[in-house]
Amino acid sequence: MITIIGAGISGLYFGLLCKDNGIEFEILEKEVYTGGRIYTDYTSYGTPVELGASIFHSNQTLLIDLLDKFHVEYEEIKKGETLYEINCQKVDYPKQASGKFEDVIDDLCNPGKDESAKMNYNTWKNSYDQTGKILICKKGLETLTDKMADLLQEQIKFNQKVEKVKKDYLVVNGEKKKFDKLVVCTSLFEAKEFMKVPKEVMTIPSLRIYVELKNEIQFDYRYLVSDKNFRWAIVIDKKLLLASYTDGERAEQLANLGEKKAIELVLSELEISESEVVKTWFMFWKKGFEIVKWDEDVRGKHEVSKNVYATFIPDIDRNGQDQAWIEAHLRTVKSCFEKML
């Protein structure tokens, strides 16, 4: 019997791998719902609003395999619908590009001299060259975790708060529970509540601002990557805009302004009048995701003690940066499962 802690996408994926291989398992979830940091608002607007994970890319193959397996539809935001903005100038690449991506950026800024331009240059190059097609889930990513959970409903136990992890037993809701093999599929910050975790952790704050407008959006793009504070803007539906999609220092700077001022600034940068706005959503996670600074000889060794495994030990460099966090966790779960066998 394998005991899995956490029914986010990592725990659900580990459960699927167990089920597909005929391995007995159970999933302990402290909440009364599944999905973890994947959360979709289906009621506030006619189109699903992603309050957790939102966009993904065509190179995230494990995630796309799951979407296809469970018949969850997704669509591409095409390159022709993407604009890059630097110093208030927009360029449609590759339509306006006579040469390489670097040449286009060089026309707009000098990354060799200006530090902020150098950072933006790397951001845009990565966003175009390395991530593949930009995709969104038409019915919300929670559709995927719901379907995964439906398949595993007999093995999922809710309201199971793990308080301690010992050598061969857990303390769950104040009671001892023996285990044969244990897999921790929570975030590292949740795991800190009941077990020893690495100290060398870098946290990445995340911020999302959605705006519902009175009239249909009349932008000349579907997806805008900018050096302004909002960083990324994505047209989700005719009247729904993901007006700021940003992580790291810029997310924290916006959040420090306070919700009202941050929204006012983003609307101003996007040239949207407050009189045009029906509703806004503001989500800030001070610890949106984490990067574990492991030595190379530790990376990918998922067994933290005898018969206790953890999927927050990444198998790829800079977990959450080289790959978006969902794909990084799915890859790590798959590797952990294979090593456990």
Please tell me about this protein's structure:
The protein is an alpha+beta fold and 341 residues long. The protein folds into two domains: 2-41 and 141-200 and 293-340, FAD/NAD(P)-binding domain (3-Layer(bba) Sandwich); 76-137 and 203-290, Alpha-Beta Complex (Polyamine Oxidase, Chain A, domain 2). Helix content is 27%, strand content 30%. It contains nine helices and 21 strands. It has helices at 9-20, 61-69, 101-108, 115-129, 142-151, 188-191, 249-256, 259-269, 325-340; strands spanning 2-5, 25-28, 40-41, 49-50, 55-57, 74-77, 82-86, 89-91, 134-137, 156-157, 162-165, 169-172, 175-178, 181-184, 201-213, 223-226, 232-237, 240-247, 277-292, 303-305, 308-310. The strands form five sheets. It has a seven-stranded mixed β-sheet with strand order 8-7-16-17-18-15-19, with helices on both faces. A hairpin with a 5-residue loop joins strand 16 (223-226) and strand 17. Helix 1 (9-20) packs parallel to helix 5 (142-151) and helix 1 (9-20) runs parallel beside helix 9 (325-340). The longest helix has 16 residues, at 325-340. It is elongated and about 60 Å long. It starts with a strand and ends with a helix. The model is unreliable at 93-102, 108-114, 294-299 and 316-322 (pLDDT under 50).
User: Uncertain regions: pLDDT < 50 for 5+ in a row?
Assistant: 93-102, 108-114, 294-299, 316-322
How many domain modules? 2
Q: Can you name the CATH architecture of the largest domain?
A: Alpha-Beta Complex
Using the CA coordinates, give the radius of gyration.
21 Å
The coarse overall form would be: elongated
Tell me, rounded to a whole number, the average pLDDT: 80
Number of helices: 9
C-alpha termini separation: 12 Å
Biggest sheet architecture? 7 strands, mixed
Instruction: Give, in spatial order, the strands making up the sheet with the most strands.
Output: 8-7-16-17-18-15-19
CATH class of the largest domain: Alpha Beta
What is the structural class?
alpha+beta
Q: How much of the sequence is in beta strands?
A: 25-35%
Order of helices and strands: EHEEEEHEEEHHEHEEEEEHEEEEHHEEEH
Instruction: Could you tell me the CATH topology label of the largest domain.
Output: Polyamine Oxidase, Chain A, domain 2
